Amino acid sequence: MSMKQILVHLDNTDRCLTRLDVAISLALCHQAHLTGAYATSHPFSAFPRAGLPPKVAELEAHFRQKTTAAGISADWLSTDASGLHAGATERLILQAYYADLIIVGQADLGAEHLNTPNELPERLVIEAGRPVLVIPRFGEFTRVGQRVMLAWRGGKPAARALNDAIHFLEQARQVNLLMVNPGENFENQANSLCAYLRHHGVSASVDRLSVEDMHAGDVLLNQACDLEIDLMVLGVIARNRLGKTGLGPVGKHFLEHMTIPVLMSG
What we know:
Elements: E1 5-10, H1 16-30, E2 33-38, H2 54-70, E3 74-78, H3 79-82, H4 88-96, E4 101-105, H5 120-127, E5 132-135, E6 147-151, H6 156-164, H7 166-171, E7 174-180, H8 186-199, E8 205-209, H9 216-226, E9 231-235, E10 238-241, E11 244-247, H10 249-257, E12 262-265
Helix pairs in contact: 1-2, 4-5, 9-10
C-alpha cells in the first residue's frame, strides 16, 4: 500500500513552519494528500470561523499559500471546525486514524505557554496505530529520507517499523541497518533483512555494535551522526507502569534527545 495521506500537526510554535516544510516535501515525493491539523490545548470551537484568533488565521493562510505553490492536494483542519471539546492530543489521535503518516514536533518544555501538550508525540506513537514522524525542536531539515537508518532488535515493534518505513526505504539513496548488541543470531537476522529488502528493490548495509557502557539511544544517535543520516526508523515498546502506559527507555531517550527526524512505530 502506498503512502497517500499525510497528517501534519500545526500549532502556535515557530517550529510548526519547519514541520510544514517537511510535510510538503514528503507529500510531493510520495504524491500524497496533505492535511494540516491545527490543534492546541485550548479548542477554539466557540469562535465563529470569521472570528478565529489572528495567529490561527495567519497560519491557515500560510498553509494554503505554501501547498498551492507546491502544487499538492491539501486541506486545512482546525479545532474550530471539529466540534470536539476533547484535548488537543485526543483530537489529533482521532484524525490520525485516517492517515498513512503523522508528522509532529518534538516536545519543547520551554514552550508550554503556547498550548501544545508535551505528551503529544508519545501518546500519538502509543495510541494512533500509525507511524509518527517526529521533527526535532532544533535544526533545519530540507531533506528527510535520503539517508535512512533502521534500528533493528527483532520482535514485533521492529517488524512494524520496517513495514511502516518501506516507502522511505524504497526511495532512499542510502539505507543502513544497525543492531546494538545483537547476540549470536546476527548473521541470520542480517541475511533475512537484506533478502526482504531486496524484494522491495532496496539495497542496505547491515552493521552491529557491541557496547556496554553507553545508552542504546546514544549509540544510535552517534552512529547516525557519523553516517550523516537524515531519518532514523525506530520500533518502540509501550510499557505499563503503575497503571500508566508509556514508551520504553530507548523510545523515551529519542523523544528527549533526538537530533534528526525519527520515524516511530509502536
